[in-house]
Amino acid sequence: MAVFKCPSCGLDKTFPETFANREVRCPRCGEASLIVPDAADLHLEDVIDPRPEPPGAPREHKAITEAELSRVMEADQRPRLVEGGVVRNVAGGLTTGALAVLFSLAVGLLAFSHDGLLAHAPHAVAMALISATVMGLAAALTSRISFAAAGPETMTGVVLFLLAGFVGQRMAGAPGEAVLATTLAAIAVCGLFTGVLLLAVGLTRSGDHVRYVPIQAVGGVLAAVGLMLVVQAFGAALGRSVCLADIVARYFEAGLCLRWAPALALGLAAFVVMRWVRNAYAMAALLAAAIGACHVYLHWRGIDLEQARALGWLFDAMPLATPWTQVQDPGFLGRVHWLVIADGAGYVAALGGLVACSAMIRISEIEVATGRPVDLNGEFRALGTGNVLCALAGGMPGTLSLDRSLGNRRAGASGMLAGLLGAAVCAAALILVERWLPLLPRFVPAGILAGLGFSLLWRWLVQTRARFAHKGDYALLLLVFLLTASLGLLPGLGIGAALALLVTAVRYGSVSVVRLELSGAHYHSSADRAPAQQAVLRRKGDQIHVLTLQGFIFLGTTNRLVEMITARLHDQDREPLRFVLLDFTFTSGLDSSVAISFIRMKQIARSGGFLLAFTNVPLELESQLARAGCALSDEDGGSITATSLDYALEWAEDHILDDAGELHQEHKTLPELLAPVFPEPGLIPLLARVLTRVELPRGRTVFRQGDAPDAMYFIESGTVNVEMALEEGRHLRLKKMGPGAVFGEMGLYTAAPRTATVTTAERCVLHRLPARAMPLLQRKRPDLASAIHRFVVALLADRVATTNATLREVLR
User: Fold this and answer.
1) Residues whose CB falls within 8 Å of the CB of residue 409, separated by 6 or more in sequence, listed in order
2) How far, rounded to the nearest angstrom, does the alpha carbon of residue 377 sit from its chain's CA centroid?
3) pTM of the model
4) H or E stretch including 457?
């Protein structure tokens, strides 16, 4: 066997041995890594190669396509057919299938609960059961959540209810056949749009972006959906369309209470089971007990089935009527009012957006419940495929059901067989609807709607109050809930989204665009300066002001940046400002309007007598600013650009040293350079006798990264660059060293390879102390060896002190 372990996200998977030594990208995070043989599965011949590779020959790794890796990983993640046992899967599949039938029936009746559509309830029932069948198959065959339950949900039912009401209102006075045809076509358009949207998100791997949707707005809308469900549960129990005002005014009469009170009681019991028990068997037992209790009551009162239907206790017999019976009518398309559907595009868009957001929330909660990550993009693809197929088959849009999914998990229905059986039960219920529906009490689907409504209200108005870290978040959710409940879904959703985006913008604006604010008195370039130069920079370095920027830069966030520069310019207690260095290393982009602020900064620089230096600016950002009228590389206009912050710092320091007359040091011999810093000045002539003078032209490499250490070097004249090789052929300059500096000293003490490459920046005179000389000095002249050791220790201590000072400046 072979093992793939992602170093970034921790994904750990096993593969057949044929995949060993292949470099792949993790399908979850995109990080490249190597599939290696499993150490526990190795044999002696695996680690002893009778034909060793020639020294230095690079080992070749076979390439593997991302599609091939995805196929293997998906096969490994796909739920097994009978995972958890055959008995559990059969029992769980039959139970969850029965629950899906009843839940889908409730959603279907909700969508067609307007007075003008009540007569077409058979179409609603058929569409809901088609959706339950198709979405159940899609979840069982394509979802990686082994216990996933999908189908028409209350949220989709509420939006379709509002859309059907909109269609009926716009087509008031039109023939009933035209209203029905337009409603069916609108539902199909909703399913197609939702499916295509989810597929687009999943295929473009944009699922994680959905997690940034303001949860306050979505939560407020879903809480309002819960209230609508509770209100419409009364209508479902009574077989008529109702509103909240009607319930308060009329439906507390004794005769009507007897009709809806069982639904309310069942809804409260279902809410308790969904919230705290979360077991499919418990929910099935509750609903079975409610149905049985109704029939026992009818028998006790001597009411036969026909009388019960006449009294409104049971459903009337409904013939099977799928939407295809309408579509096959040659005049169907002619009866559809497409302009009405176009006018209702807001409901179509709202349904797609709410399905995507609610699916993200439910999948996240499943991740918390199981303690395992879920591929959000894969689940979006599964739901998108299911919705497209539902629309083509004549069903309603559907989504993932959190309560039923967690109920399946508690019941042990974790295999593909359970999902397939559940879909088969829904298909059988669709075919046999004329037989079982007349036996079902009306209050059962009404109680399911009430229970789901109570669950949404509890979830978003009670539980989230403790979960939100900011009190304003809950206040915003409550405001969106009230707006949606009073004004309607679309106005509430639009206003809620606008308010949430406003709050997000305000909070993002409170995050400083400045990552670090540093003074040149403490934060220096990598150029190694002489002691006299260091003293000048400690006194005058505050003339350099460094600002490292972060994140995406908006016009609003740059106002704070302008204020900081202006405040530093007018600070009379500090050195006069001469250089402001703006580093863009940690920025992710610029808003197009930011050019206004940068032009303002250049104006302040010209009037204030200082120079702006923009460092690490990506070429596309510099071009973007130039097109907006702000040229960064414009020394006459008060600004320049530099490839890195370090080079800009060195350039500014050189100007300060040049003004102080310390930039160009007079030539000194090595003994003169060592005299102020060597522990035993009297031993310097003796040290010079064991050093080898080396003259190198500009551009010559002294040693390379990875070379064996063999000597320490003293610089008498010239400068060298210390660079580290990075990936893709890039190099990072670590330090620039001049006369009096020492490098390569660790070669005297360790056998570790060189960690950087040293190259001469100009003609240099170096003095080399070979590592092999130290043991001889230790034996023959221990005093000189001790002085060299103390010199190196002091050198390292000084570097540590400098680093500590820099860290203090960074962290202050």
Assistant:
1) 147, 369, 370
2) 11
3) 0.70
4) helix 443-458
